[in-house]
Design brief:
Radius of gyration: 19 Å
Number of strands: 16
Largest sheet: 7 strands, parallel
Oligomer: single chain
Shape: globular
Distance between the termini: 43 Å
Number of helices: 12
Strand content: 25-35%
């Protein structure tokens, strides 16, 4: 039996490098993929893993090259944003070839598009596809699933991200610019997904001590509006991001800083689940959101490759593919964050 081959699209970006390092730490065999042949070779040399690392050049507009990658690989992790540009061709190629697929997207339109366009092909070819298994989107989705587990008839879920020290990569900067300019937002209310203009507003979210109340941007355009309702019976999903994420002058002027400096982020992801007569909450607290996202995608990819993934194929939300709390606990043991759950009003951790 041959070892599974993990392909990383956009491997020489910051997230791709983290994913590659984490997979190599698990003795995986890698195929580094991207459009820049020289950058791929340089990264392979830096990783220094000999026969365990190979490279292949493939741009998003080269359907034949993408097909060859998907045919060779067992699981692909898509790290190259913005996904509004790169997402559809890579996801389509994976679904058609039966290659298991995970991506780092937070863009809700892309995530909805994967569900809408790749579902039938993925089910036909036997691919498991999990969009948005990353820091933004994925961790909020999983935390919502963990907090709401066993609760029927949820009225409202609020997912709030508090981030300090965020330094955007080129891909993240392009994604943020696109999302902030977007006029047709996806929202989830009254039990349905809606598309249309939404007036941004300022809000305050009561994070638990020691963080406390924080000024927030709402609604935050992230993928939980698409994914959470797939596995939680909820009528409304609200998303928020702390204004502190963009307050530092360096946030949008940090494309070329080193990995160590980029890792200096502090984050809290908090979820409130509310239903008639009760509420529950949970939070993730940690440092280096980039590594937390990389660990999430690697954990999912390894589980799928080892036969510990979901029992059904097709496009799945993170919390639909994996039992939410056990998955988060595994990430906690790997040092991604600290998980706290409070089951119901006045409940214990």
């Amino acid at each position: 039996m041959t070892n599974p081959l993990f392909a990383i699209y956009g491997a020489y970006g910051h997230t791709g490098r983290l994913v590659a390092s984490e997979l190599l730490a698990r003795d995986a065999e890698l195929l580094l993929v991207g459009r820049d042949t020289e950058a791929l070779r340089t990264l392979a040399d830096e990783l220094g893993a000999g026969r365990r690392v190979s490279t292949r050049t493939a741009s998003v507009d080269d359907a034949r090259a993408l097909r060859e990658v998907m045919t060779a690989a067992d699981v692909l992790i898509q790290c190259a944003g913005p996904f509004a540009v790169t997402g559809a061709p890579v996801a389509t190629a994976a679904a058609d070839a039966g290659c298991h697929y995970i991506d780092h997207a937070l863009e809700p339109h892309h995530v909805k598009g994967v569900f809408d366009t790749a579902q039938a092909a993925a089910q036909r070819t036997g691919a498991v596809m999990i969009p948005s298994l990353s820091f933004y989107g994925g961790l909020g989705d999983l935390l919502a699933g963990a907090v709401a587990d066993g609760i029927a008839g949820v009225d409202r879920i609020v997912v709030a991200y508090a981030v300090n020290g965020w330094r955007l990569t080129t891909g993240a900067k392009n994604t943020a610019t696109h999302l902030l300019a977007e006029t047709e937002r996806l929202t989830f209310s009254d039990g349905s997904l809606h598309a249309g203009y939404v007036e941004p507003r300022n809000a305050v979210f009561p994070f638990p001590p020691p963080l406390g109340p924080r000024s927030m941007i709402a609604p935050f355009p992230s993928s939980e509006v698409v994914t959470v309702p797939r596995h939680v019976p909820v009528r409304a999903v609200d998303l928020m991001l702390s204004t502190s994420a963009f307050e530092a002058e360096e946030a949008f002027d940090s494309e070329h800083i080193g990995a160590d400096e980029r890792a200096r982020t502090d984050f809290t992801v908090a979820v409130q689940v509310m239903w008639e007569g009760g509420s529950a909450a949970g939070q993730l607290t940690g440092h280096d959101l980039w590594r937390a996202g990389a660990l999430a995608s690697v954990e999912g990819a390894v589980r799928i490759a080892e036969g510990r993934g979901p029992t059904k194929t097709g496009v799945l939300a993170p919390g639909e593919a994996f039992p939410a709390e056990p998955f988060l606990r595994d990430l906690e043991r790997q040092g991604a964050f600290t998980l706290t759950l409070r089951r119901g009003e006045g409940g214990e951790e």
